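[Automated response] Your request has been received and processed.

Submitted sequence:
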Amino acid sequence: MRYAYAITAALLLGGTAIAVTSNQPLGAQTAQNEGMQAAAPRGAPVSFADMVEKLQPAVVNISTRQRVQVQNPFAGTPFGDLFGAPGGTPQTRQAQSLGSGFLISADGYIVTNNHVVAPGAEGASVDSITVTLTNREEYSAKLVGRDVASDLAVLKIEPKKALPFVKFGDSTKARVGDWVIAIGNPFSLGGTVTAGIISAVHRNTGGGSDRFIQTDASINQGNSGGPMFDMNGNVIGINSQILSPSGGNVGIGFAIPAEQAVPVIETLRKGESVRRGYLGVQITPLSEDIADSLGLAKNRGEFIQGVEPGQGADKAGIKPGDVIVKVNNREVTPDETLSFIVANLPINSRVPIELIRNGQRMTVTAVVGQRPPEDQLNSFAQQGDDDDFSNPRSQPDAGAAAQQSLGVAVTPLTAGIARQLGVPAETRGVVITTVDPSTDAGAKGLRRGDIILSANNRPTLTEADLKAAIAQVTAAGRNAVLLQVLRRGQPATFVGIRLRDK
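Generated structure:
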């Protein structure tokens, strides 16, 4: 996924005139397009010119000047002082980013994307933000507020007079097939207008709490932060991202819907921070493998991998291995994800949560907390890999794993092995001694030294326990088993493993 903003570049545009001849007799002197006027598509005007003439003055170009610390690539070589700062110290370079935005008030409040005005690289800093109007007037802009999660920012300029501005519309009424217009600053060419239709609504591009309007209106680098208008001239989206292997338009662009943007913008405009709901769980989609191992329908609910101590989910009694299917009477689906639903719930509200545990449905009540900053959330994420218990000279013959339908061979976890693996002495499970790489277990990254704590939510203290769990799912006509796996330095994780085809 690429953000639709650009680094300054010089473009050379050229064109070639092509002469077209006709085989008509010399007496036929009427051009093919004489008097032609295309019929307007239903619901759209013959031309967007009148609409654009009124809207375009409210769209602005935004540029930033940044300082970036770069390392001398010749540091430590005889050429270090010749091609860089003496001693190989970092050097400061100037950079510039370009994007779009639009005025939402006559006194100079402007909406754009956060990534348009954020530092473009690690260690960079933004020195100044400049806003250029369509009449080429330039203003120095102040950053009023930004929200990284929604990728929105609000700027303020001090205009000499009242400025043209636009208002938001109701994006909840947007339908697939509706006409839309995008105005922005692609490739630093200045105000550019493109038109298209809405290709999809509520599109999830992988973020936990984002939902986009997808359009085939051309959106390119530099369009970020520009408005998407409906046929009434109202802003129903803020152009934000493109999906493209080349970085250019391929007809798949995404805009932040007004229904999500407006509350964030109003909060930022007041100088306040955006607050979002939080339960404190690690989740994964209910994939086909996990769903099969539990005997559930896929894509209905989300699987709980971990629960953060002391947060709302923990206090409500939610446990790893649970499948949450409803929150506040809203079904959890790939379009209505758990993160999306919870993020939009009021802080401190009490909500019912319906979940499935060991095949039984139950309902708990949770108090919604406030989502912590992203850097704190990273501490709850999985740690990096450590590969203990994997000395190749002590690796058993892979044939032992090849004989197992799960594709792994195991041994009981003894106190000595627990010390070697660096896990608590009270840990109970079986340790993987070898993995058949040709099986699903190998494809999903299981390896020697991983500890299987449970299979299908039943403790596995011996190899017989693991085989019994496999026999149980096989008897039920399923072809996958749900394992809870512990690896040194990481929290225990659930993974659905398909059995070897007989």
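Summary generated for your ticket: The two ends are 40 Å apart (CA to CA). The chain has four domains: 54-156, 171-269, 277-378, 392-498.
If you did not submit this request, please reply to this message.
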